[in-house]
Amino acid sequence: MSKHSSKITSWEQLFASTSDQLRSLGIENSRQRRYLIRKREKFRNGLHGPGGDLEHVVDGVAQLRVVEIPASAPAANANATKDGKDGKSETSAPIVPKTKKVVVNLTPDATEYTHQVSKVLKKYAHMKVQRGNKIMGPFLQPMKGTHGTAATITVQEGMWEDKRGHKVDGGERRQKEVRAKLRLEERRKA
Fold first, then answer.
1. DSSP state of 133
2. What stretches in the chain show pLDDT beneath 70?
3. Global pTM value
4. How many whole angstroms separate alpha carbon 110 and alpha carbon 125?
């Protein structure tokens, strides 16, 4: 689509153009017009590809880390006393606050993350914690020495493309016919 960038002069023109208007601008191929319109609508709806919703990106590189944060506030009566059956008071064991592991986006040069209770953590599309503490997602490159708990994602060509499928043996309609011809050709060679 970069070859058509000179035909669209402004963001307003891009977001207001219909398929017929895009054709008059010189985008003749209907598949390319549909692709452009589909990507435009995804952008409007906030459906970005992998890494498209990251906040801290410097020179096309972002850092993701798995961190442990409190799941909820600790109980108010952590060491409260209660009466036992024999009438003696006893103290309960301290309640350890539960934690959960989440993926956070840091600047590429950051080494630590400090959690702010008032800050609502964002869930990033296509990125998740698997196997307890490893970050999994497309286009991630693990950082050395972190055992999968930290990774970087770099902007690269084709990262946000909608990839079309490929036909296997002539596609669904012709698959039996093409495979029969291939078997016949193999028998002739043998």
1. T
2. 1, 72-96, 116-118
3. 0.58
4. 22
